[in-house]
């Protein structure tokens, strides 16, 4: 995941300097509202924003009434999130921490009612780390708590990404890129097909509350209105 850390350190360092904050994802908000999970179902409900980035979803969750724990592997992302929440007077309602590995979720010593991992899990890079996220999430999730997350669709990596990709190859659901900014830095992503993911979630005893697909134009594409990549949105419940 070192290549992706470098990429996001650069992005969030720039964003902190300009306070060019991203808005909460409409697809996340829609999914949680449709499942009735956008507001806390009990007092002192806690949400984990795993891979918080610049804090766009941490901000939204706090405003909806959750106590929020925000983590990111990028120190610059945590800094950006801290600056954002502080500027809105929300910092006292968030517990922010840079983490080096998935197991550090347990640092918070809390059980969560909601875990958000938006446009992130494929960056974990390997099947082992990807599965470790769900193992740790289940350990730290209340009974009937939910996980909302995205995973790339099957065609996502078949399209040219001018921002990131110079060369791409796929072996056993692991997608390997060479990051242009690092020249020799290989960036590995993990992206299994939909049915394989659904079978795995079923084996964990997770109940599917919501599954949808959204698409967006690929930045840098000359045919951005026609060439599109996409993500699956999952909401899974700990039954």
In the CATH hierarchy, the architecture is 3-Layer(aba) Sandwich
* Strand ordering within the main sheet: 3-2-1-4-5-10-9
Task: Provide the low-confidence segments as ranges.
Answer: 159-166, 218-227
CATH topology (fold) name? Rossmann fold
Give the amount of beta strand, in percent.
Answer: 25-35%
- Radius of gyration over alpha carbons? 17 Å
**N-C termini distance:** 31 Å
Structure description:
This protein has 239 residues and is of the alpha/beta class. It has a single domain (2-15, 46-154, 193-238), classed as Vaccinia Virus protein VP39 (Rossmann fold). It contains six helices and ten strands. The chain has helices spanning 2-18, 26-34, 56-64, 75-87, 127-139, 194-203, and strands spanning 46-50, 67-72, 94-98, 112-117, 141-152, 165-171, 174-179, 186-190, 206-217, 228-238. A seven-stranded mixed beta sheet has the order 3-2-1-4-5-10-9, with helices on both faces. A three-stranded antiparallel beta sheet has the order 6-7-8. It is globular, with a radius of gyration of 17 Å. The chain starts with a helix and ends with a strand.
